[in-house]
Amino acid sequence: MGIGLPRRYLFLGLAVIAVLFFFPYYAGDFRMNQLGLFLCFVMFALSLDLIWGFTGILSLGNAVYFGGGAYFVAMSLKLKYAATNPARYGSGIPDFMEWNGLTAVPLWMRPLENIWFAAPAGVLAMGLLAFVFGFIPFKRHIYGVYCAVITLAESLIFEELIIEKQAYTGGFNGITDYGSYSSNITFYWIILAVTVFFFWFARRLTTSHFGMILQSIRENELRSEFFGFEVANYKIFVFTVAAMMSAIAGGLYAALNGIVSHQEIGPLLSVEGVIWVAVGGRGTLIGAFVGPILIKGAESLLSEQFAWLWGLLVGLLFILVIVLMPDGIVGTLIRRARRKRALAAGRQPAYEPSAVGVEETPTTL
Amino acid sequence: MTANILEIHGLVSVVSRHPIINHLDFAIEEGELRVLVGPNGAGKTTLIDLITGRHRPTAGQILFKGQRIDGRARHEIYRLGISRKFQVPTVYDNLTVFENMSIGLRGHRSVFSSLSYRMTPAAVEQIERVLAQIKLLERAREEAFTLSHGEKQWLEIGMVVASDPQLLFLDEPTTGMTREETNATARLIRDIAKTRSVMVVEHDMSFVRQIARTITVLHQGRKLAEGSVREVEDNPKVAEVYLGKVKISAVS
Amino acid sequence: MAQALFTQFLTGFSIVAILLIISLGLAVIFGVMRVINMAHGDFIMAGAYVAFVMQEYFQLNLFWGIPASFLVLGVIGMVVEWGLIRRLYGRPLETLLATWGVSIVLQQGIRLLFGPELRYVKAPDVLDGGFQVPGSNLPFAWFRLFIILLALGLLFGTYWLLYRTDFGMHVRAVNQNRPMAEVLGIDTRRIDRFVFAFGSGLAGVAGAILAPIKTVSPTMGFPYAVDSYMVIVLGGVGRLVGTVAGASVIGESETVLSFLYNNVIAKLLVFTLIVLVIRVFPQGLFTMQRR
Predict the structure, then answer these.
(1) In which band, very low, low, confident or very high, does the pLDDT at A3 lie, cut at 50, 70 and 90?
(2) Which of A140, C65, C130, C253 is the most buried (most CB within 10 A)?
(3) What is the phi-psi region of residue C269: left when phi exceeds 0, alpha when psi lies from -120 to 50, beta otherwise?
């Protein structure tokens, strides 16, 4: 839709980036770390917006790629930490390996000791995994609800596998205590830079011809098939790209957080991501920023007092958004602007589809 | 004799033990403008579904320019040069008219070619030309959901024309149109048919008379009659099947 | 080894029965309304809590708990359908998400009411103990036999409802051709409401019957939900035989493979099996043709 943004949005964006850039100076270390983590979630939400908001693929298991990337980085940092801290790791190998009877780092894990190998390897591995996981439903033209359920099952199985292989993954507790880059302002800026880059990249992708085809798939995938597009390939491609984005976000998260566990892989985070995008506004890109910041921010401010109520509120909020405001916050604003435009041009459309193609039952052609 | 662009031999399609297409033999000549009529349930849309690859036939052969296409994938069939317009106008509501048209444009179908695709001035010109033909040029930058039903029909026709197919199927293109819109559509279709083969499915006999040279009548999945408008209208079997509808609309 | 496998096979029956009980409600709802209820697992959980409440506060055993769960969840289902599902008609993905919201609300609500601790529900005393299955040395608990009989009972009950009553005929009409059913004067909204209530009630029963086997907690429902989705994906939609087939294949495979390898590998292999099957039958093993 549109090639460039009006000037005022560009300035607004730069202002936001400036605020985020200088955030550590006036908010202190703790909040900076928090915001860093939130930005990782923003990147995760952005990848979800690409596959769901723009292409119409509802995946309830995308945290697998986020967590997978996180595990690669965490493992690498852990191996390094254990090897270089004899005071705490006498045998030089991670604690969970020792507890499970390993005496040395397995050969196939050795390359992970180098972070410059482990991080890209994680991203590529997640890309490959997404390719396979996407291939399964997409090539068979399985979409909608069936596809969502399959992605859910995939993520659950993956989560259980990770927990089960505790000798290599730290099991239920995950990978902990490997030093981290928290309270490191440079690392925070790196996260910010990657986030901005991802937004730029997503914008380029979605406003290109390719992006338009993705949206046509979201609107009516059957129709696009009849226009000669092999929809499965498009879906697999964007699904893989999104997974790799998630993996990068997950890796940064791991480096910042100092702990990675099955919670970063399982359906809980996956669905949380969907909630963020739904509330922020799917198909808008900006919504992927608004959603997580708003919800996670509110959670951190409110849950200190209202921890017991918070979960309930999120659930109710989610229901309300889906029923009353399916376009999300940003989406609803866009829709209002669009309606104004249409009325100004003298058009009175018979109906108004949601601004971002909120899904209807596939039309009987 | 002109070659047949489409040939169908012994086509059968059985769904839930019910034969929707029942040993149909059918052919369209190159450059022809054919009209397909028949009562509801005759199998007209199903026939198009089978040709364009929406469903696999249970038996029989479909040949496009001598090549078998039955059982092939939808996007492959499209790329061979067959396009269809659906009964219900099916355009992309949230994309602009211009964007809708550019989806229709031929070429750069694969993922990687679409990633590197940049719209050429020639392509823009082609789109604008078709938009002018379907009278939607001023609406080019507006989202498609603002169009009226008839305008959406034309947009979809424009989209399939932009794809420059060799064989084009139009499924009830005048449903919901006014008299003037219908006449304009007739002119548009005659124009389109000058450079390609077209098959139109229709119910509106006055519209059919404006465009048809040869009509095929389908009934219960079989060819009931075929010939010029006159021949078909005078055919007693056809009249029987339509319960006199043909004669009535001859009056209207 | 062969006898061990046979033993596992027999054990599998009760797993199949459990899967059937869990999935029946969802299958009926999905078959008619094409709605995946993400809160299905939590309806099961709520059913377990109803049984718990009956036991703790009314001193009534499971024979009372089961019908109570059916009624309570039936009412909850009706409320959810009226308040939520109805408004999202024709938007299956939206409905899926909204019911996920219901799931969160239910879990949090139960946690607020009962706390996060594990609760225990007893099987009725009369069902204590077991018997020896002839032909093997497998001890079979009476309660497991009860589960199997209940599963069969529910299956036949659902079959009778769908195929031997007027209401069921209307349901099947809506299932096959909704617009046509509407034109013929069937109140499809009312059918939806009752179908959803019925399916939710069945979920409640599942919860009650599972309460003695697994400990009751606010998060117990989720794995069951995913299992039931898999039964439907494999077995197909709109036909009871599909649900039975799905439950049987998954139940037996999981039991036997768990025995041969371990739980997680078994799940992985079963999932792979399902994926392979849907490559050949994308709509599941038995599916109803819909206009």
Answers:
(1) very low
(2) C65
(3) alpha
Query: B142 at the A interface (CB within 8 A)?
Result: yes
Q: From chain A, pick out residues whose CB is under 8 angstroms from the CB of B96.
A: 1
Q: What is the pLDDT of residue C136?
A: 64
Q: Which residue has the tokens 């609800």?
A: A145
CA distance C99 to C267: 25
Helices (H), A49-114: 63-84, 95-99
What's the rounded mean pLDDT across residues A287-292? 94
> Which DSSP symbol is given to C133?
P
Rounded (to 5) percent helix, strand, coil in chain A: 75, 0, 25
Residue A363 has pLDDT above 50, yes or no: no
Phi then psi for residue B132, to 5 deg, are -65, -40
Which of A161, A274, A312 is the best substitution to test chain C (most C C-beta atoms within 10 A)?
A312
Beta strand B82-85 with B167-171 is parallel
Please name the residues in contact with A10: beta carbons below 8 A apart, sequence gap of 6 or more. none
Q: Please give the average pLDDT of every successive group of 10 residues along chain B, which has 252 residues.
A: 83 84 89 87 87 90 90 89 89 91 86 87 90 88 86 91 91 86 89 91 84 87 86 82 54 46
pLDDT for C105 equals 93
Q: What is the CA radius of gyration of chain A?
A: 21
Longest dimension (CA), chain A: 77
Pairing of strands B214-219, B222-227: antiparallel
- pLDDT digit string, tens, across residues C126-153: 877 887 777 666 778 888 888 899 999 9
CB-nearest to A227 from B87, B149, B163 is B163
For residue B243, the model assigns a pLDDT of: 55
B33-37 and B197-201 strand pairing: parallel
Which structure tokens are listed for B181?
């819109």
| B145 neighbourhood in chain A, CB within 8 Å | 349, 351-353
- Give the residue from C201, C235, C211 showing the smallest Cα distance to C16: C235
Question: Buried b vs exposed e over B47-56: b needs ≥16 C-beta within 10 Å?
Answer: bbbbbbbbee
Which ranges constitute the DSSP H helices of A85-143? 95-99, 115-138
Contact call for B79 and A213, based on CB within 8 A: no
ipTM score of complex: 0.85
Strand-pairing partners, residue B15, are: B18
Which amino acid is present at C74?
Answer: G
What is residue A360's predicted lDDT score, i.e. its pLDDT? 44
Cβ neighbours of residue C60 under 8 Å, at least 6 residues apart? C54, C68
Residue B98's SS3 state is helix
Q: Are A229 and B146 an interchain contact pair (Cβ–Cβ within 8 Å)?
A: no
In B81-156, beta strands by DSSP E: 82-85
CA C257-C262-C266 angle, 5° bins: 45
Mutation choice for C interface testing from A274, A318, A364 by most C CBs within 10 A: A318
User: Is residue A1 classed as helix, strand or coil in its secondary structure?
Assistant: coil
- Whether A300 shows a pLDDT value over 50: the answer reads yes
Q: C230 vs A153: CB contact, 8 Å cut-off?
A: yes
| pTM, to two decimals | 0.89
Q: Which helix (H) or strand (E) holds C67?
A: helix C62-83
Task: Report the alpha-carbon angle C223-C224-C228, nearest 5.
Answer: 120
Compute φ and ψ for C132, nearest 5 degrees: -95, 125
In which residue are the tokens 């209307």 written?
A: C170
- Given an 8 Å threshold on Cβ–Cβ distance, is B111 in contact with A234? yes
